[in-house]
Every structure is written in structure tokens, then in C-alpha cells.
Amino acid sequence: MAFQTLLPCKVRLFLLLCLFAVGQGQSKLYKGFTKFNQVQDNKQGNLFEEQWFIQKLDHFNGADSRVWKQRYFVNDAFYKAGGPVFLMIGGEGPANPAWMQYGTWLTYAEKLGALCLLLEHRFYGKSHPTTDLSTENLHFLSSRQALADLAHFRTVMAETRGLTNRKWVAFGGSYPGSLAAWFRLKYPHLVHASVATSAPVHATVNFPEYLEVVWRSLASENAECPVLVKKASDILVERLKDPKTYDNITKDFNLCSKLQIQTEMDSAYFLETLAGSFMDVVQYNEDNRGFEGVMGTNITIKVLCSVMGDASLGDPYARYVAVARLMMDTFSTKCLDTSFSTYIRDMTNTSWDGPAAGGGRQWVYQTCSEFGFYQSTDSPNQPFTGFPLAYQVKQCADFYNISAEQVAEAVAQTNEYYGGYDIRSSRIVFPNGSIDPWHALGITQDIAPDLPAVFIKGTAHCANMYPARGEDLPQLSLARDHIYVLLQQWMKQ
């Protein structure tokens, strides 16, 4: 569920959450997951007032008595006495109160008489447990601490609101989808059921399958489309070998400063930034995200492939340029900042007012310390070149002094702790979309009758969470209905 936006920005590492979001300028911040775009609508802010919960800084150290305030929202419009409690889990971006007004979970809440709560994730949005984002303080940022936050929140809210005997259901999409599954797994006495949408439950350092799915998703529109993207990417890589081309490349892509390629990190960041347009559009293809304040939802796989297939624009490289320009126009971006040195400066700024404090510095830390998820070009079966795993992992050392060996060890520990694909629990449903590259790390086949998968052909990241609309694919509508039937059954158990 959670997080970020589409075009220019710094971090291109992991998620674009389905739920929470950073402002439009922070777009590339959470590559890969959710995009929680911040909604600047005061009416929504007034409708659902932010509330604050006292939370422990370190749940696993009884000698540490430090506390902080965690933000949450409440919608009790549908609650009927004796009804369940729905808990939407925040992720790698600010909690967006638009989700208290829109979304499929509210349809379920209305039918089942549920109280709806949304809890912001520690270290994101306004939930600041520490004075800054120093690496020392980021040690308190982890999925395990976040689950303990959820457990404590659920326990205290049940006691203070008289909800102890109610059935609690966790909802989340993307990284929060994983948290929803793991909340049920690790705290089965506190949460009765979970809807874990587009949840990458298997951690992996290298995730080249992401770009393989991008190839297949583009090819599903037009078999030639990813071939043309690959040709364009190869031409660009070839030109980067000759510094005489840099002025033209700077002009072509309207870069904010003259292209400087002094290290492999410089070229990797430049190439990844351009590839990001395709990655983001594929991940969120045709999703109904307008209510979040997201721009660019009109740019779809069909649109990208029509540009790449337009011979009147010139060779594949010229069409690739046209895609970049289209994205810049869509997001009103004056120029494209592809400077790796600027990116390093922003990502190592530890202030809460820093340019990566919307979630980029925090999320990349979580990838280095828990998950990996690096969308490298290490597979031959994808359209891009030039941003290998080594480039991704080196950022862990540059930003947080975490070595490649430590990243690998952390990822192994994550799978050992949660079980990866081999989840042993009950009453968790795992919806995924075939277009969404993240489905490669999710559950797409039933594990057991009470651990069902819902694999939705032709839909993208977190599609089943967004509000229904007339043009939805029939299989998306059926998936939403199927999830509701499961919830109905589980509420009786």
C-alpha cells in the first residue's frame, strides 16, 4: 500500500507504496512499491483529524523507557456495535487520510459494520520517534519494531475503546501488505485475519525478476514494445562511452546540469532514472489512484508503447527521449536531475527537513538492513542495461556504512524470521496482479484453504485496494467480491 510518485527525484530503490505518499517531487523515492501521494485537501484533513498514540521507542529493550507519538486516523462512520475492527497499516511514506474516505476496504467496512483505523509507520510522515534520521537512530526502524507498534496500538485501543472482544482485521498493500501478513503470523492472538495485497513476503538481495516482469508487461501490450525499449537503452549505453555525446544527451533529456559520467555509479544512476519511467508506469498501470492526489495516472503501458512504436519520432533512442519528455511534461518537471552526487548529498542528509526525509532515506535503510529488493539489470531477459546489483548495494555502504555481506546476512535473517514464501498461519488472503512486478516475490498460489491467493490477470500493484469504477476489468471486480466473501466467512470463525 503505500508510497510515492512518478517522476523526478532521488532514490530509485524500492517501493512505491500503495497507500501513503510523499509529495510529487519525491517521486522516485521508493521505487518499486507503493506510492502514497500526499493529498493536499484540507477538507479531508478536517473530516479525519489526526490523532496521536504514545508508543515505545524500543519494544525489545525493557530498560529503555523512551517514548514518542505515533499518528493515526479513525473512521467510525460504518461501525455497528459488536462489529469488527479494520486496521490499515501504514508504510514507507506519510499516512494519507484520503484512505479514510476512499478505497475497497471501506466498502467491506460498510457491509460488515467495521470500525476503521489507519496507523502511520514509525519514521514516516509525521511519526518521528527520534530527533533526526542518523544511522544510529535508524536502528529503531525495522519491520519487527513496526509490528510491535501495531501490537501495542491494537492492545491499548481495544482496552480504551471497549474493543477487546472484537475481531481485528489487518489490511495493507505492498510493504504494508507484508506487514499485514506478518502481523497475523507473529501476533495471531491479536489479529483475526489479514488482507495482504501485493505483498513481497520473500526478501532477496537481488531482484532482477522485477525488470523481467516489466518486459512481459510491456509485451502484453505489443510484442515489439520491450524490444524497442531495449534497442533505445543499448544505443544510449553505447553513446555514454563517448564524452563527445554528453552535450547532446544533456539537451535531449533536458538535464538540469551537463551530464557528468566519471564513475560507474554516475552512469548507473542516470540509466536507472530514465528506466524508472517505464518501471513506475508498469507497476501502477491503469490503477484508480486519483483520489490520493496522484498525477500521471493517464500515462499507461498503452501510452508508453504507442510512443515507442511511433516511427515518425525517429529511431528508438529518439522515442525513448520522447517518453522522458512526456513524463516531465506530465509532472511539470522543468529539468531532469540525474546527478548521482546530488542524490548522495540528499540521501545522507539526516535532518527531518532534508530532501529525502519524506521516506527515501528511511526506506533505502530498510532495504539495506532487512529486505534487499534491488531491481538490477542482471537478467538478460529484460529491456535495460547499466544498473547492476553492485551499484545498488554500494549505496548501503555510502549512506549507512552497511557492507554487501551485512545486507546478505540481514536478508537471510528476514526470511528465517518470517518464513519467506513458506508462511504457516491461517486466515490471510494474498491478492496480486499479473502486471505488477512485485508479484514475483509474493504468494500467487494457494498455500492452504485458509491461506488463499487471489491472482488477478491484467492488473497492477494494489489494484484491488483502490475504489471500484465502471471500467475495471471483470476479474478485478470478481477478486474484490471474492475477498469480501472470505472476510464474511472468517468473521464467523
Average pLDDT value? 90
As an assembly, this protein is: single chain
Could you estimate the helical fraction of the residues in percent? 25-40%
CATH superfamily of the largest domain: Alpha/Beta hydrolase fold, catalytic domain
**Fraction in beta strands:** 5-15%
Distance between the termini: 27 Å
Family: Belongs to the peptidase S28 family.
Protein name: Serine protease 16
InterPro entries: AB_hydrolase_fold, Peptidase_S28, Ser_carbopepase_S28_SKS
Organism: Amphiprion ocellaris
Question: What key attributes describe this structure?
Answer:
alpha/beta, Rossmann fold, Four Helix Bundle (Hemerythrin (Met), subunit A), 2 domains, two-stranded parallel ribbon, 11% strand, globular
Structural description of this entry:
- The structure is a single chain.
- By secondary structure, the protein is an alpha/beta fold.
- The chain folds into two domains: 42-203 and 421-491, Rossmann fold; 205-410, Four Helix Bundle (Hemerythrin (Met), subunit A).
- 39% of the residues lie in helices and 11% in strands.
- The chain has helices at 42-47, 104-112, 135-138, 143-161, 175-186, 209-221, 224-239, 246-252, 264-283, 301-308, 316-330, 340-347, 360-371, 389-400, 404-418, 474-491, and strands at 51-56, 67-75, 85-89, 115-119, 168-173, 193-197, 204-206, 372-374, 428-433, 453-456.
- Strands 1-2-4-3-5-6-9-10 form an eight-stranded mixed beta sheet, with helices on both faces. Strands 7-8 form a two-stranded parallel ribbon.
- β3, α2 and β4 (115-119) form a beta-alpha-beta unit.
- α4 (143-161) packs across α5 (175-186), α7 (224-239) crosses α11 and α13 crosses α14 (389-400).
- The longest helix is centred in the middle third of the chain and has 20 residues, at 264-283.
- The radius of gyration is 22 Å and the shape is globular.
- The two termini are 27 Å apart.
- Residues 1-17 and 19-45 have low confidence and may be disordered.
- This is Serine protease 16.
